Amino acid sequence: MTPDLNPVRTAPAHAGAAPGGSVPPESAALAIHGLSKRFGGALALDAVDLDIAEGEVHGLLGQNGSGKSTLIKILAGFHAPEPGARVTLHGADVPLPIPPGAARRMGLAFVHQHLAMLPSLSVLENLRLWRFSTERRWRIDWRREQAQARETFARFGLDIDPRARLADLSQVERALVAIVRAFEDLRAGNASGTARGILILDEPTPFLPSAGVDQLFSLVRDVVREGASVIFVSHDVDEIMEITDRATVLRDGKVAGTLETAQSSADDFVEMIIGRKVELFQAWPHDAAAEPVTVRVEGLSGGMVKDLSLDLHRGEILGLTGLLGSGFDELPYLLYGARPVAAGRLDLPSGSFDLRRMAPPAAIAAGIALLPSDRLFAAGVGSLSVADNVTLPVLGEFLSGLGLDWGGIRGRARDLGDRYDVRPNRADLLLSALSGGNQQKVLMAKWLQTDPVLLLLDEPTQGVDVGARQRLFQALGEAAQGGTTIVVASTDAEQLAQICDRVLVFARGRIVQELTGGQVTKEIITEQCLRSIGVEAIRTKEAARA
Amino acid sequence: MTDATGVTGAGGRTRRKFDWLHFLEAYALVAALLVLMAVFGMLKPAAFLSWANISTMLGSQAVLVVLTLALIIPLTAGDFDLSVASMATLSAMILAVLNAEGGWPLWAAMLVALGAGIVTGVVNAAFILYFRIHSLIVTLGTGTFIQGVVFWISGSMTISGLSDGLTEYVIITRLFGIPLAFYYALGLCVLLWYVFEYTTPGRRLLFVGRGREVARLSGIRVERVRFAALISSGFLSAAGGMLYAGTIGAADPLSGQTFLLPAFAAAFLGATAVYPGRFNPFGSLVAVYFLIVGITGLTILGIQTFVQNLFYGGALVIAVALSQLVRNREQQDFS
């Protein structure tokens, strides 16, 4: 890890552990000192110090891969840290690695992004999930449990029926139940009956509408009032600004600094996350691409995406990005007819399509190809051979009077393997036997051989090593030169900067920023993602006023 | 895949050596069948190795082969069909009721029986696909329902007196000393092998079973493929039922049901052979006769009939366990 070019802001007064590895401050609810974690050759966490004060909401920020989730997973007991670290909880040492399942007992409660709840069970059953599964008690007094749950909900001013089926609740209510459950677990773990402990919220907001976020924040404040401390993990600077007292930024596995929220601006955070001073972004001159428009999307709504219109040029590589839950990654599936669409038209050279009636067979016939991100669930079948997988869309070409020509099929698989540098290039190998990068080459070849007009990609290089990534980019470049229009949905700013002519940033299902030409850089893309929610909020307000 | 030798690309094209391990895996069941025959042949050469015994085994169990083949079509697409045996019984009973009791010409009764098979397939598919109910539950229900229909139309009685033409063309006429029934099953086996391996519908069927989402996003009309698979199994079960009526020259309301478990056992056992890890027709054929040789041999040795259940039940579980070993004990997904 090389140090960054620009000086890192120094943390304000009481942030970070005292130098020299001394005892953490008395007031700290949770103190972490010298926490490292190594995966293979790479340090995911490098001597991280962090302390959370009693009754504080502490933000934890950082880009993908900065080490946030590794830190949370160590606290939850999923990973063992490197020796030499020290973690104390209310002044008492915590055994490392934290035994799985022990975190809750010690006063650490988690709310994960996907909430870890069972939608088909009742609210009450979900609320007691952990207690029922671990407590040694024979009989369940449902009436008492229900009364208790009602009391807890009432205490937080929530109007939720404990008997309701979780699936019938709104997304916001489900998130609220998850937080209440974590709070209850903290209380149950404490002999004193207070909720002294650490509540860790791991990106709970991306899928919530803005009103829901407000409700969630007010619950977080109530929980803090009851005596808990909160670690709030997020990508979103605006949310961090609103809810936290202090926030720590991780970058490349190290603590980049801790900021006192009240005394910092959003720019301070963005700068610390990216690691250097970013140039202020000016309005862009629209780059009129020289090539003709070949693909036109009009009024597309479906999933998170709302009323989206878009012109795409021949041979253009368009990037779609945004924070998790902003809807950018749904667009490829919507255009392909793989997910339900509420409204929208798609114009291609081969004709005009009502997207409500689009389905994969029609999309393929129209010259559209989709490479989903979930490689062995949606893109290819691991238990079938490379030849089976790669020739699926073009099987008709190998039909002769006697049926399928297996020699030809294997030959095609080998040729494509040669062309896209699949290693080892063996047509009869099971797809699952290849590495992630080589699987992706095969699956990319599966669609590139059809010479699509529009190629839709979702996270095309997730879990792909550097070498294979370059080969995939080269393949995309070749296809674009041949006239294929390519749409890449990705959260990887570096990749988008490298391959895209234009990048669209999404927030809450809308395009909030279009980056072209010199603006397509890793830094600007990352920055725009971090600011995207704020931009969307302002636009929505403006629209409401107008 | 099919050939054990392959050519590696990427630079110098070298022929790989014959893959013995692969060959062994693919033909272990065939070897086991031969060993079993040798053992019984040594213990009871006169009874077991007699041509009468062998041709009876081949001819009389053609029904089981057809039912197993009917079963592997939806299994390949990822759906169970527990109604195959009841459907076969119903088909046989329709022949008996219409032809023997009602005096219909044989061909008309056969058409009605096959039609009933198609209707069963449509009903199964409609419940599985439209209401999205697991195939296991739907076909368990329809299978029991059909069995009820069989008791109803037969008055729970065995009905004999079918036209001679049927038995004539199923079991009495022999080619190279083996009843025609065996050749029907063999022909169906070849046909299915061709469809599975050499046609695009066969490939689509395989992809639908292995990865529904992959298939859907690759432009395969998944529901249509599953629909067709279930109709095929209904149709072939009905055909199997006609063979059964021809084999015994009558239709009885109960014994057809006993084919269900052996058919499943053979389908899963067959998936460990010839094309290991895949439901395949020739593997199924070998598996059926492996089971039959085992049971016939044990019966000739004088062991009581309860051994049938031990053998079929044990074979089903052991076959699935073996196929799981082939798949490195991955979680099974029959959804």
Keywords:
heterodimer, A: 546 residues, alpha/beta, 6-stranded mixed beta sheet, 18 helices, disordered N terminus, B: 335 residues, mainly alpha, two-stranded antiparallel ribbon, two-stranded antiparallel sheet, 4 strands, globular
Tell me the distance between the termini of chain A. 50 Å
**Sheet having the most strands of chain B:** 2 strands, antiparallel
Count interface residues per chain for the largest interface.
A-B, 41 and 27 residues
Low-pLDDT segments of chain B: 1-15
Roughly what fraction of the amino acids of chain A lie in strands? 15-25%
User: How does the helix and strand content of chain A classify structurally?
Assistant: alpha/beta
Radius of gyration of chain A: 26 Å
Based on CA inertia axes, which overall geometry of chain A fits?
globular
Give structural notes.
The complex is a heterodimer of chains A (546) and B (335). With 546 residues, chain A is an alpha/beta fold. Helices cover 34% and strands 24% of the residues of chain A. Chain A contains 18 helices and 22 strands. Chain A has helices at residues 68-76, 102-106, 123-127, 129-134, 142-155, 171-189, 210-225, 237-243, 266-274, 331-335, 360-365, 375-379, 386-390, 406-419, 436-448, 466-481, 493-499, 522-545, and strands at residues 28-39, 42-53, 57-61, 86-89, 92-93, 108-111, 197-202, 228-233, 246-251, 254-260, 293-302, 305-313, 317-322, 343-348, 351-354, 368-371, 399-400, 403-404, 454-458, 485-489, 502-507, 510-516. Chain A has a 6-stranded mixed sheet, sandwiched between helices. A 6-stranded mixed sheet of chain A has the order 16-19-20-13-21-22. In chain A, strands 2-1-4-5 form a 4-stranded antiparallel sheet, with no helix packed on it. In chain A, helix 6 runs parallel beside helix 7 (210-225) and helix 15 packs parallel to helix 16 (466-481). Mean pLDDT of chain A is 81; it is low at 1-24 and 277-288. Chain B contains 15 helices and 4 strands. Chain B has helices at 20-43, 45-48, 51-60, 62-76, 84-101, 106-130, 135-154, 164-172, 180-198, 200-210, 212-217, 222-248, 260-270, 281-300, 306-326; strands spanning 159-160, 174-175, 178-179, 250-251. In chain B, the strands form 2 sheets. In chain B, strands 1-4 form a two-stranded antiparallel sheet. In chain B, strands 2-3 form a two-stranded antiparallel ribbon. In chain B, helix 5 (84-101) packs parallel to helix 7. Chain B is globular, with a radius of gyration of 21 Å. The chains are: A alpha/beta (546), B mainly alpha (335). Chains A and B meet through helix 11, helix 12, strand 18 and helix 14 of A and helix 9, helix 10 and helix 11 of B.
